[in-house]
Amino acid sequence: MASAVRRKTYDPYRNFGYAYDGSAARKLEREEVLQPRPQVRPRRQAAVRPKVQVREAGHVSLFAVSGFAAVAVLAVLILMSYVQLAGLSGEVVGLSNEMTRLKGEEATLRARYELAYDLGAIENSVTADGSMGRPQDGQMVYVDLTEPDSVVVYDHGQETTGHFLDGVRQIVENVLAYF
Fold first, then answer.
1. Side-chain half-sphere CA neighbours of 66 within 13 A
2. Residue 163 has pLDDT above 90, yes or no
3. Do 20 and 13 meet the contact criterion of CB atoms below 8 Å apart?
4. For position 158, what pLDDT does the model report?
5. Whole-model pTM?
6. Alpha-carbon gap, residue 144 to 141, rounded angstroms
7. Alpha carbons within 13 A on the beta-carbon side of 135
């Protein structure tokens, strides 16, 4: 039963109802006037809000109140410390200005002091009357400062047991002095 399979060949003009005249533009048999169609928008449904039950107001927690009070106290303390810092910085600026003024005054006074005493004239007057003389070679002493210095201080009689309590007391005094 061998049957021959018939293959279809492609014919581009087979299914058209018009004959090909060699033009790419198709001619309409009747002239249609295209009119725009109005767009139809789908209707929106109104939003339905779900019914929610409202919870009654609860009691205020004592822990929350104490937390807010602690935050308020800390905010006041920080504000006070900023006020103290501003006052101290103002004092530092004033003292710095006074120090620069005093340094200028010191330079002026040193210059006036050097002008008031002529060391050469004083030396000549003291050596001329014989009350003072130049040092001899045996009277001169030279100190060698090339070696590093070291000092050992021995402290006898102090107790070492009270240092912890003294330190705690000093910390408490510093904290109380700050406020």
1. 3
2. no
3. yes
4. 57
5. 0.33
6. 10
7. 5
Q: With the C-alpha atoms ordered 166, 167, 173, 174, is the resulting torsion angle positive or negative?
A: positive
Which amino acid type is present at position 69?
A
| Residue whose tokens read 């045996």 | 138
Average pLDDT, the chain: 80
Q: Is the pLDDT of residue 1 over 60?
A: no
* Phi, psi for residue 2 in degrees, rounded to 5: -85, 120
Distance of CA 24 to the CA centre of its chain: 75
> HEC states along the chain?
CCCCCCCCCCCCCCCCCCCCCCCCCCCCCCCCCCCCCCCCCCCCCCCCCCCCCCCCCCCCCHHHHHHHHHHHHHHHHHHHHHHHHHHHHHHHHHHHHHHHHHHHHHHHHHHHHHHHCCHHHHHHHHHHHCCCCCCCHHHCCCCCCCCCCCCCCCCCCCCCCCHHHHHHHHHHHHHHHHC
Tokens for 171?
């910390």
What mean pLDDT do residues 25-44 have?
71
Distance of CA 42 to the CA centre of its chain: 57
What confidence score (pLDDT) does residue 150 get? 77
Tokens of 103: 């340094």
Contacts of residue 179, defined as CB under 8 A and 6 or more positions apart, other chains included, come to 77, 80
Residues 6+ apart with CB under 8 A from 13: 19, 20
